[in-house]
Amino acid sequence: MFRPNGRAAFFDLTHPRRSAHEDMALRDALAGHRAEGDLVVLVVEAGRPVPEQLSAGGTLLRLPPSATRDLDTCTSVVEAMTRLCIDPASCFGYGDPCAGTGLLSVVGNPRVIACSADSSRLAQERGWPVIAPPSAV
To answer: CA-CA distance, 136 to 126, in Å (whole number)?
Structure first.
């Protein structure tokens, strides 16, 4: 699929533990990107199930399990953007910087799902917007 001038949203679902509130924030972000017609890409490790509440209507990017997961995520996302002819500046990335910054560092519009004080601090240091779970609002 060739998507010149298209947008994509990459969701890092490799972090094994997220609260229900974080999943809700991700679902809201997914719904917004789907409504805009953006390509939605769910990044998961091979062998791990995609959370049912997040799985509908997305392209799956499965990563092999490895000790270099953050590097693998970064490489896989850059490769996907290249193959899809999508400018990284028009891409969004959602994830937890404490689980790794690979995905967030290669897209033009990183968004942090704040799951801890450390995540929020790292996001603030890098100037990345924080998507707070609904319980934090």
So the answer is: 21
Identify the residue whose tokens are 């910054």: 101
Contacts (Cβ under 8 Å, ≥6 apart) of 39: 3, 6, 7, 8, 9, 59, 84, 86
The pLDDT of 61-71, averaged and rounded, is 62
| Token pair 């560092």 in the structure block, residue | 105
Give me the sheet containing 39-45, strands edge to edge: 59-63, 39-45, 8-12, 91-95, 109-113, 130-131
What distance separates the 2 farthest-apart alpha carbons in the chain? 39
Structure tokens at 90: 């028009």
Residue type, 108: G
Q: Could you tell me the two tokens for 18? A: 């997220």
Kindly state the average pLDDT of the residues 69-96.
86
- Residue 39, SS3 per DSSP: strand
pLDDT digits (tens, 9 = 90+) for 96-126: 776 666 788 899 999 988 667 777 888 888 8
